[in-house]
Design brief:
The complex is a heterodimer of chains A (about 775) and B (about 300). Chain A is α+β, with helices and mostly antiparallel strands and about 775 residues long. Chain A folds into 3 domains: about 190 residues, Alpha-Beta Complex (Aldehyde Oxidoreductase, domain 3), CATH 3.90.1170; about 325 residues, Aldehyde oxidase/xanthine dehydrogenase, molybdopterin binding domain (Aldehyde Oxidoreductase, domain 4); about 140 residues, 2-Layer Sandwich (Aldehyde Oxidoreductase, domain 4). The termini of chain A are far apart. Chain B is α+β, with helices and mostly antiparallel strands and about 300 residues long. Chain B has 3 domains: about 45 residues, 2-Layer Sandwich (Uridine Diphospho-n-acetylenolpyruvylglucosamine Reductase, domain 2), CATH 3.30.43; about 120 residues, Uridine Diphospho-n-acetylenolpyruvylglucosamine Reductase, domain 3 (2-Layer Sandwich); about 120 residues, CO dehydrogenase flavoprotein, C-terminal domain (Enolase-like, domain 1, 2-Layer Sandwich). Helix content of chain B is about 35%, strand content about 25%. Chain B has a 5-stranded antiparallel beta sheet. A 5-stranded mixed beta sheet of chain B has the order 14-13-12-11-15, with helices on both faces. A 3-stranded parallel beta sheet of chain B has the order 1-3-2, with helices on one face. In chain B, helix 2 links the parallel strand 2 and strand 3. Classes of the chains: A alpha+beta (about 775), B alpha+beta (about 300).
Chain lengths: ~775, ~300
């Protein structure tokens, strides 16, 4: 069933819209600067908000003096947590725990935590006044490292931890106290001791991933205003408008229909704009002032708002001499920072995949979400999976080499195949593990000899493969509206943040309705217009929303055919939908507009199709962590690199990059390819040099001048992408998600290639030149001292 | 960013008079690429900025004088320098160094004068100009003076420039025949990052031995420095691998790198060693290919 799409080869049928490399519907608007972003929105009478942030990592607040700031000419007001209480008596929010106050109350838990807000019509005045707010702190002991914080019995980031109970997959969370571990997930499958006893060799290693930033080019921004009836209208650069509405309505004790949340194109998201970020604060400010309020973060403030988890992974693996993995025991500590955000989902969803894409007799996995006094960590392109793959695929290479087995052969021996149960007990179906691995091997020309070079520049190659489960259970609803002239609008809550979802959804609707994708209009998320969607996250939209759009389009098609059947007297089965209309067996053809005009006697009316998609899921057993339906589909990504290592400086250069991903069916092969390479480049930054550096909880490099992300000069000379298609039985046209797939395997592929080149193993990302050179010198016994 | 007053003098005299004040928050601004970052982060909050934009017609020329000395107008943008045929003819090392300096948007507005007056050790031109014995002409209301670059750059973000003075010319003496060189830039993070180490190296050969060597190091050090000890060591030696190796050891021993997010002091010293050796090798090789720049 599977096939591989070669780069540059057009795929798909001649008439079909699915499988066609349709150009982005918004391309022209974007390159001419006309595309709508909330970042550009201003409304009359608007106040600008600037946030006063904590300078201390962990402290009690003794007092806040706002007097001087309030007296600065042009300042409208200064708002503290006490003021928020007047409009929202219980101002704690969060998708997993209600742990984050809208503005700090009693305590601050990380540097950069919002403590007060200055409002002014001139944003620069507001900015200046933030320096005039005096906060009196009583400092507390801060905790920064996830493993130390998990062990702490005296210092706690939160006195009590209250579960939110909003999302179905997080309903089992329990309230906790006297611990910094907000949530833990355990999986026990098989007799671990017996399996380790069968092993000829046991390997144990600890790997660490650093804290990094999403850094979307459009910083997080929200504008809230009251409507004529006193309801709230929130314009926000959010990946999850439906959740924002639910959470703001909950905080206010309002029904959902009094809160309207809308968004536009996002200048990148990557997980930074999920759940609630600024919306609760800005909504409260609009209610307090009765004026429109806008808060737009600076690049610097983004580093203190949401980040990717640093993680420590200790992994113990038992293998037989012939290279079979028989037992795995893996413990992961996730550095969640001061507020849990979606960390518990990262902990569980990543936790249960720590066995990797391998078929292992007995598996024990423990995963801990840990509070620390660092900026909060949440989801970033992969929900924690890249940090886990970093550990298990680095170790796979170590084991293979120790056993004298080729790293590819070792993976082939252990790969988890369709029909076999995953560690969770879920039987694998329609998963491209074997196909991705084999395509990666072919692209890398793994069976051919490889020149490792001589002299100061050495060459190496490495590969890695990772697996991710789609988040579940989640719901998407879509409307497909055929207007009176027969033109089509798709109403869906999927946010196009650059991933091309508008184009993909238009293709799906167009394919069902016999239209050109370019002629379909996709209406952007607005909770007053578009129906519910869980969120644009975790590579879920193509599968979930794609199904909802497909079902909605089929519903509309069915209604249109029924109308035409009524009008022509033909049986519905005899009618065919094509070219924006219905063809009858006698050769007559009616456009959708014709059909509606005949129905209503003039150009009038609509046909509204509704689609709703909610895949089957079974939550993991409370004691074993197992489930026979843990996820609706799996994503498989493979990365291969050829590197050059400068043995005199430690610098690693990726000269050839191969990214392979299984997307089930490429709805739009061009976009799929760019999603794969884009994720790969992003992960390249996290692998080679991106790192948030802290000094007592303060981010030393919180700017784009010092926190460097890859630019064009950093891209590999050879960049190759392969799309593997192993169709999924429940996917729309067989499709699965692809947005994170390219992120999964890159980091260990690079470390494995570095080992292949120079024989040193790096256990911590990023692989900076200094870290690599230090490892080389340690091996040679000649490390430098301080200069 | 806080509000500020922007003054736009039409002449140099007017600009110097506006700058002649005791108010420490009055500052000249040319391209503004560095100043704006400092203002946005509130490291610097001026009440008054004196824009030099309108002086551009008289202070942005790039020319050779009768003696063959190169003059870089302080208000010439780095992009002007990059695209100048006069500069390319004088030495391709400057031209090529500009091509990997930050990005084209920055080069379009950043100026030669601001690049030097900022005193940031992570800039690309200072080590090259220092190796080429460049001098800076400075004007104030009290008069004019000329300062050699090593004396101009006094420390980490500090120069001899008084708050009331402006750079009015940058003079690079005509190069001796046969001087070939390179600028080697080492970035530890992304390719477009500030350099962690910059080395400008020029050599002139005579009779199979080094007649003259010029080596300047920047970025790893608190200010760009000429390595005179390395230069005198090399003079009269055959350009063999061992000599360059020893020169590199000497260079590393003579610098005192500061640790920061881009590297520890010990690592930076290692990098200075590697970069000085490679720069010397490349400077020698450049004799046949007319100069160059390497980005590592």
């Amino acid at each position: 069933m599977s096939k591989v799409l070669e780069s540059g080869v057009p795929a798909g049928t001649e008439q079909g819209q699915v499988g066609r490399a349709v150009k982005r519907l918004e391309s022209q608007a974007k390159v001419t600067g006309r595309a709508e972003y909330i970042h550009n929105l201003e409304v009359p009478g608007m106040l600008h908000a600037k946030v006063v942030r904590s300078t201390i990592a962990h402290a009690r607040i003794r007092g806040i003096d706002t007097q001087e700031a309030k007296e600065l000419p042009g300042v409208y007001d200064v708002i503290t947590g006490e003021d928020i209480l007047k409009v929202i008596p219980d101002p704690y929010y969060g998708p997993a725990f209600h742990d984050q106050p809208i503005l700090a109350l009693d305590k601050v838990r990380h540097v950069g935590e919002p403590v007060a807000v200055v409002l002014a019509t001139d944003v620069h005045v507001a900015d200046r006044a933030t320096d005039l707010v005096e906060i009196d702190y009583e400092e507390l002991e801060p905790l920064f490292h996830e493993v130390e914080s998990a062990k702490s019995e005296t210092t706690f980031v939160h006195d009590v931890i209250r579960p939110a109970g909003t999302f179905a997959d997080l309903k089992t969370l329990q309230p906790r106290a006297k611990t910094n571990v907000s949530m833990e997930y355990h999986l026990r499958n098989g007799d671990l001791d017996a399996a380790f006893a069968k092993a000829d060799r046991v390997f144990e290693h600890t790997f660490r991933s650093q804290q990094v930033s999403h850094l979307p080019l459009e910083p997080i921004v929200t504008l809230a205003q009251l409507t004529d009836t006193g309801n709230l209208l929130i314009h926000t650069a959010s990946q999850s408008p439906s959740f924002v509405r639910i959470e703001v309505a909950r905080l206010l004790g309002w029904p959902e229909n009094k809160v309207r949340v809308r968004t536009a194109y996002l200048g990148g998201g990557f997980g930074a704009k999920l759940y609630i970020k600024l919306e609760a604060l800005v909504a409260a400010l609009a209610l307090i002032t009765q004026r429109p309020v806008r808060l737009s973060l600076t690049m610097e403030e983004q580093f203190y708002t949401i980040t990717r988890h640093a993680a420590t992974v200790t992994i113990r693996t038992g293998v037989t001499n012939d290279g079979r993995i028989v037992a795995r025991d893996c413990k992961t500590w996730w550095n969640g920072g001061a507020y849990a955000d979606i960390g518990p989902r990262v902990t569980q969803k990543s936790g249960f995949t720590a066995a990797g894409p391998y078929d292992i007799e007995a598996v024990s996995l423990d995963s801990y979400a840990v509070y620390t006094n660092l900026p909060p960590a949440g989801a970033l392109r992969g929900f924690g999976i890249p940090q886990l793959v970093w550990a298990y695929e680095s170790q796979a290479d170590i084991i293979a080499r120790e056993l004298g087995i080729d790293p590819l052969e070792f993976r082939r021996k252990n790969i988890l195949r369709n029909g076999r149960p995953h560690a969770t007990g879920t039987v694998m179906e329609d998963v491209g593990t074997v196909e991705v691995l084999e395509e990666l091997a072919r692209k890398m020309r793994w069976d051919e000899p490889f020149d490792h070079g001589s002299g100061p520049i050495r060459r190496g190659r490495g590969l890695a493969i990772g697996i991710k489960a789609a988040v579940s259970p989640t719901t998407s609803v879509a409307f497909v509206n055929l207007y009176s002239d027969g033109s089509c609008g798709v109403y869906c809550g999927t946010v196009d943040m650059g991933q091309g979802s508008d184009t993909a959804m238009a293709q799906i609707a167009a394919d069902v309705l016999g239209l050109e994708a370019e002629s379909v209009r996709v209406i952007h998320p607005d909770t007053e217009v578009t129906p519910y969607d869980m969120a644009t996250l975790g590579s879920r939209s193509t599968f979930h929303m794609g199904n909802a759009v497909r079902l909605a389009a089929e519903d509309a098609k069915r209604q249109m055919v029924a109308l035409c059947a009524e009008q022509t007297g033909f049986a519905p089965e005899a009618l065919a939908v094509q070219d924006g209309g219905v063809a009858a067996p006698d050769g007559s053809f009616f456009t959708y507009g014709d059909i509606l005009a005949r129905r209503f006697g003039m150009q009038a009316g609509n046909v509204l199709g509704v689609g709703s998609y909610f895949p089957y899921y079974k939550k993991p057993d409370a004691t074993t962590g197992m489930s026979d339906h843990i996820t609706p589909y799996w994503m498989v990504g493979g990365s291969g690199v050829e590197v050059e290592v400068d043995t005199e400086t430690g610098k690693v250069r990726i000269v050839r990059l191969v990214t392979v991903g299984d997307c089930g069916k490429a709805i739009n092969p061009g976009i799929v390819k760019r999603q794969l390479s884009g994720a790969s480049f992003m992960q390249m930054g996290f692998t080679l040099f991106e790192e948030m550096v802290f000094d007592e909880g303060q981010v030393v490099n919180a700017s784009m001048a010092d926190y460097k992300i890859p630019g064009f000069w950093d891209l590999p000379e050879q960049n190759e992408v392969s799309i593997v298609e192993v169709p999924h039985r429940n996917g729309p046209f067989g499709a699965k998600g692809i947005g994170e797939t390219g992120s999964l395997g890159l980091s260990p592929a690079v470390a494995n290639a570095v080992y292949d080149a120079v024989g040193v193993r790096i256990y911590e990302t990023p692989l900076t030149p200094e870290r690599v050179l230090r490892a080389l010198r340690e091996q040679q016994g000649r490390v430098w001292g301080d200069a | 960013m806080n509000p500020f007053q922007l003054l736009q003098p039409e002449t140099l005299e007017e600009a110097l008079s506006l700058l002649n004040t005791d108010d420490p928050s009055v500052r000249p601004v040319a391209g503004g690429t560095a100043l704006m970052l400092m203002m946005k982060s509130k490291v610097f909050t001026p009440h008054t900025l004196v824009s030099l934009q309108r002086l551009k017609p008289s202070l942005s020329g790039i020319r050779l004088d009768d003696a063959g000395d190169l003059h870089l107008g302080p208000l010439a943008s780095l992009r002007d320098v990059e695209r100048s045929p006069v500069v390319a003819e004088f030495t391709p090392v400057i031209t090529q160094a500009m091509q990997t300096l930050s990005n084209v948007r920055v080069r379009n507005v950043a100026t030669v004068g601001g690049h030097l007056a900022h005193g940031d050790p992570h800039m690309d031109l200072p080590p090259i100009l220092m190796a080429l014995d460049a001098r800076v002409r400075i004007s104030g209301q009290a008069g004019e003076r000329e300062v050699a670059l090593p004396e101009f750059l006094t420390g980490y973000y500090t120069t001899v420039l008084n708050p009331s003075e402006l750079i009015t010319d940058v003079v690079v003496p005509a190069l001796p025949n046969g001087l070939s060189g390179t600028y080697l830039k080492y970035t530890a993070l992304s390719a477009d990052d500030w350099p962690m180490c910059g080395v400008a190296a020029f050599v002139r050969m005579q009779g199979g031995v080094v007649a003259e060597a010029r080596v300047a190091v920047s970025a790893a050090t608190e200010r760009p420095v000429r390595l005179t000890g390395v230069e005198s060591f090399l003079r009269g030696r055959r350009p063999a691998a061992e000599a360059f190796e020893e020169a590199a050891e000497l260079a590393a021993a003579g610098v005192h790198p500061l640790a920061d997010i881009r590297g520890s002091s010990g690592y930076k010293r290692e990098i200075v060693k590697v970069c000085v050796r490679r720069a010397l090798e490349q400077a020698l090789a450049a004799r046949t290919r007319n100069g160059g720049v390497a980005h590592e």
